[in-house]
Write a structure and sequence with these properties.
Elements: H1 4-18, H2 34-52, H3 57-60
Length: 72
């Protein structure tokens, strides 16, 4: 009886970890959508222009093209 309990615990642990399901892709949240980014940029660009001038905008440009989602 004493050895049966650890054996059942190990078997249960192995059975629980045996399944390997792929995670489902999640839908884009509003924070990740293009509309959110456009709104954020519209609020930030005038402030950056006012403080640092147009040359400061180069710092905020992304080096790689990002996926843009259309706004409704």
């Amino acid at each position: 009886m004493v050895k049966l309990l650890p054996l059942l615990m190990i078997a249960g642990f192995l059975a629980g970890c045996a399944g390997s399901s792929k995670p489902t892709p999640e839908a884009a949240t509003p924070e990740e959508s293009g509309c959110y980014q456009a709104e954020w940029q519209a609020q930030s660009v005038p402030l950056v222009n006012k403080r640092s001038g147009p040359e400061a905008l180069e710092k905020y440009e992304s080096p790689q093209p990002s996926k843009e989602h259309g706004c409704p």
